[in-house]
Design a protein that fits this description.
mainly alpha; 0% strand; single chain; 294 residues; 11 helices
């Protein structure tokens, strides 16, 4: 299949996500008619949207179609829960804060993906590696591991948004302040880390070199630290809205564990394999939690 140019690639992605949104809305409406709990309605819609995006990935033979889903779907889930807050008594201040941070995070992360995405002629190296390892079973692996698994993880991370946006009448307290500061620091951390890395990569003389500028001097993966911190902030919002929602912390714990044991491990292995000087250049730098270089 001939790869489309960058503008056509974006058009295909937008079409895929519009179709996914339409299918998810239809599924959600059906579940609403059946009087499902709002969280299960969101889960069903999320799952249906994931299936639709996967179908487009399969048709285009490129799993990177799913990449922006991570940052797009939380904004839609948050919008749905915020809408429910009009019917269920909720603290407007907390709801506005939480929703604003989700949108700030989601728009920034989606833009960061869009500005550096070459188009459908490119597929993430991790997916290429999985395709080589799994052969004919690749598309089953793609659906379960590249599409469905992250969807489940992100949905768990979004669970605290339900008490924060939809069901709480608890007054705003110190946990909301902590949540706001955590989310603000997290988004800022990701913003600077991504921009510093992009600026480093754009310099021809840095080709093949390891970025140790700015935040990359105190963390080998500062962007992942910021990402994990953001989901912790959302958990604080949910906990402030309803202390009994403590179990929803499983979301940010799962995301942090995925970064630690899967994502960062794969990144480290690739860096060591493709950049001979990586180990020496990053010697003494914390893996992902920022810390002064030893």
């Amino acid at each position: 299949m001939k790869s489309p140019n960058r503008s056509t690639s974006f058009s295909i992605v937008i079409l895929a996500y519009i179709v996914a949104l339409a299918a998810a809305t239809g599924a959600g409406y059906w579940a609403w008619l059946k009087a499902w709990h709002p969280i299960w309605i969101a889960a069903l819609a999320d799952g249906i949207a994931t299936v639709v995006v996967f179908i487009f990935s399969y048709l285009r033979k490129n799993s990177s179609l799913y990449d922006p889903y991570w940052s797009v779907i939380p904004m839609l889930i948050a919008a749905y829960f915020l809408y429910l807050g009009q019917e269920i008594p909720a603290d407007a201040t907390r709801a506005v804060l939480a929703f604003t941070f989700v949108c700030l995070w989601g728009i920034r992360l989606t833009w960061n993906w869009a500005r550096s995405w070459p188009g459908l002629q490119h597929q993430d190296w991790r997916y290429d590696s999985l395709e080589q390892q799994t052969g004919k079973a690749y598309w089953l692996v793609s659906f379960s591991g590249i599409h469905l698994f992250p969807t489940i993880i992100v949905f768990l991370g979004c669970l605290p948004l339900y008490p924060a946006l939809a069901e709480s009448s608890a007054p705003v307290g110190w946990l909301d302040l902590l949540a706001s500061l955590t989310c603000l620091i997290a988004v800022g951390f990701e913003f600077f880390a991504d921009n510093q890395l992009l600026a480093f990569r754009r310099k021809p003389e840095n080709k093949g070199k390891v970025c140790t500028d700015g935040l990359w001097r105190i963390s080998r993966h500062p962007n992942y630290f910021g990402e994990a911190l953001f989901w912790l902030g959302l958990f604080f919002f949910g906990l402030s809205a309803n202390p009994e929602s403590w179990w929803m912390g499983i979301g940010w714990v799962s995301i942090a564990a995925m970064f630690q044991f899967i994502t960062i491990r794969m990144m480290e292995e690739r860096q060591l394999a493709t950049k001979p000087g990586y180990a020496e250049a990053t010697k003494g730098i914390s893996q992902w939690i920022p810390w002064p270089r030893k």
